[in-house]
Amino acid sequence: MPDSKLVIGMVHLPPLPGSPGFDATNARAALGELNERVMADAEALVEGGVHALMVENFGDLPFYPRRVPAHVISHMTAIANDLLLTIDVPFGINVLRNDGRSALAIAAASGATFIRVNVLCGARVTDQGVIEGIAHDLLRDRVQLGATDIRIFADVDVKHSTAVGEPQPIEDEVKDTLQRGLADALIVSGAGTGALTDIDHVQRAKTAAGDAPVIIGSGVNADNIADYLNIADGVIVGSSLKKDGDVRKPVDVERVKKLINAMGG
Fold first, then answer.
1. 149-186 pLDDT per residue, tens
2. Domain ranges within the chain, ordered by starting residue
3. Is CATH 1.10.10.10 the right assignment for the domain spanning 6-262?
4. 215 half-sphere exposure, CB direction, 13 A CA radius
5. CA 62 – CA 4 distance, rounded (Å)
6. CA 122 to CA 128: how far, in whole Å?
7. Per-residue pLDDT tens for 49-91?
8. φ, ψ for residue 186 (rounded to 5)?
């Protein structure tokens, strides 16, 4: 990864086999189309100039709140291994909604270099119910797998959720996630997918984080990326890089190039 600012492009996986959105009437053909779409999106992101990718089972609505079934892990591992052979940038894994342990296993098996965990510490109320932090299991898994080089990117005040009880100041959540959850980097987002991230929130998180990287997790586009990167260390971009800015559509390589040009990179 570059030593300067980091742009991570989202590879939103379509519905995987076993999820309600997957076309099981002709599973073999549907799986082939899925793989073609994933590789096309990844290649467009790399051609456009992103520095890394994040692979996420975005299409698997409704999400499991905690551990996912074995077939999800199997398909995501196969896709990740295909990416390793196809692209020449680092990539990470996010298993929604909060299966960081499976994300770590997929990363260890496929050569991914980082994972995203939505709730590493504390607890959040989400559309999947109450989700509790997994740091105590995840960090032990990382040691047992000999995968301490795989970095953990952890959300604070994660999107599509609210605090359980009285919200913590962002500064306290940042410190707990870094010092007690042992995250390697933090992600700060807006209220939901594609929603703008409050720049004051980012500034407060970055001040509290010190030398730890802070990454913007939503709402980044060519018009605001420079402002965000004046404060943050990197961005994760998905929706604004799709055709017509529609998260459900394929990646538009010209939108990717426009974003990279806007950051001066």
1. 999 999 998 889 888 888 889 999 999 999 999 999 99
2. 6-262
3. no
4. 25
5. 36
6. 16
7. 999 999 999 999 999 999 999 999 999 999 999 999 999 999 9
8. -115, 150
